[in-house]
Amino acid sequence: MKRKNFSYAKFGYIFCIPFVVVYLIFSFYPLIYTISISFSDREGPMLASAEYGIYKTLQTDKNGNEVLKADPFGNYREVLGMQTFKRAVGVTFKLWIINFIPQVILAVILAAWFTNRWTQIKGQGLFKLLFYMPNIITAGSIAALFSAFFMFPVGVVNNTLISMGVLEKAKNFGVDATATQLIVSFIQFWMWYGYTMLIVISGIIGLNPQMYESADIDGAGPVKQFFFITLPNLRTILLYMLVTSVIGGLNMFDIPMMYVDGGPAGATSTASVFIYRQAFAGAKRYNKASAASVIMFFIIGAFSVALFFIMRDKDAAKLKKMQKAEKRALKNAAGVR
User: Fold this and answer.
1) Least crowded by CB within 10 Å, which of 27, 38, 103, 179?
2) Which residues lie below 8 Å from residue 204, measured CB to CB, with a gap of 6+?
């Protein structure tokens, strides 16, 4: 009887304890602490001191005298008014779009190629490993590698282009804003397209094979099956890729940092680089950096919600509304009786 009534549910909670503890210490507490600093006047050495308070701004009283007044959202207003922050957010979105679009297109093409039932590719495991390999290399190592590739005046890229006759003399790619943005975007694309490909492959493998069997009977070829069966049924996978890409792309930091001071004219100064420089360079404005972090948190959250809304299953949403309407009608009918 004891064995029949024995519950194993508590072991699940016990196994969750280490994760919860680590999350609370290293993620949740820093998040709350960052939010609290964003409303304060903590800058430079003041971070190590207990003498700090709500951020204050210079205002005028009724008599026209200048006085310091509490302004909790002053840091947010100042950050949103900074041209460097606005440019950093714009650069972040630009770099994300440039690397994400070709990344998804190539990942979907490769996934369709590997899962094609008509052409069995030999050595699929080796190809998948090679495509995924850049993702397991540390970003710092890749940044150092590409810095060496585009080194001026002597580098692999310059030497190759000169030998091919594309360039007459060595070009300093590090002082060209467009070149630096394309290099950073290409590195991001190269690092993540293999990971995205594996996610798409897992989604395709999970689809019901009976749909393809029915399509074969109806005479639909591989191209029609891909566009009318595979892609529409990958909505959830594509949503996952978009959301995770937005979160990762808008937090771009390691690769853009390969260029000193955000590259020429801030071409690679992303929002994360801006936050880093506010907090750990110059006056060490921790409050401004925290405010910028919270702003980016809400931007990422807003985009994620928008993506969920745009890519939701409209038919399923309509069905849920109809079911709710039917339940209300039944309740009303029961109430009348």
Assistant:
1) 27
2) 111, 112, 115, 230, 234
248-261: pLDDT as tens digits: 888 899 899 888 87
Hey, is 259 helix, strand or coil?
coil
Distance CA 263, CA 9 (A): 54
Q: Find the length of the chain.
A: 337
- Average pLDDT over the chain, rounded to an integer: 85
The type of residue at 71 is: D
Q: Whole-angstrom Cα distance, residue 155 to residue 243?
A: 37
Residue 53, classified by CB atoms within 10 Å of its CB into exposed (0-12), middle (13-18) or buried (19+), is exposed
Q: What is the pLDDT of residue 34?
A: 92
Other CB atoms within 10 Å distance of the CB of residue 54: 12
Least confident piece of the model among 95-99, 234-238, 289-293: 234-238
62/141 Cα distance (integer angstroms) = 60
Burial class for 291, CB neighbours closer than 10 Å (0-12, 13-18, 19+): buried
CB contact set of 67 (below 8 Å; sequence gap of 6+): 58, 59, 60, 61
H-assigned helices in 82-208: 83-114, 124-136, 139-149, 156-163, 177-205
DSSP label at residue 54: B
> What are the pLDDT digits (tens) for 98-113?
999 999 999 999 998 8
Question: Distance between CA atoms of 243 and 246, rounded to whole angstroms?
Answer: 5
Q: Which helix (H) or strand (E) holds 70?
A: strand 66-70
Give residue 158's Cα distance to chain centre: 32
Q: Look at residue 26 and tell me whether its pLDDT is greater than 80.
A: yes
pTM of the model: 0.84
**DSSP letters for 123-156:** THHHHHHHHHHHHHS-HHHHHHHHHHHT-SSS-H
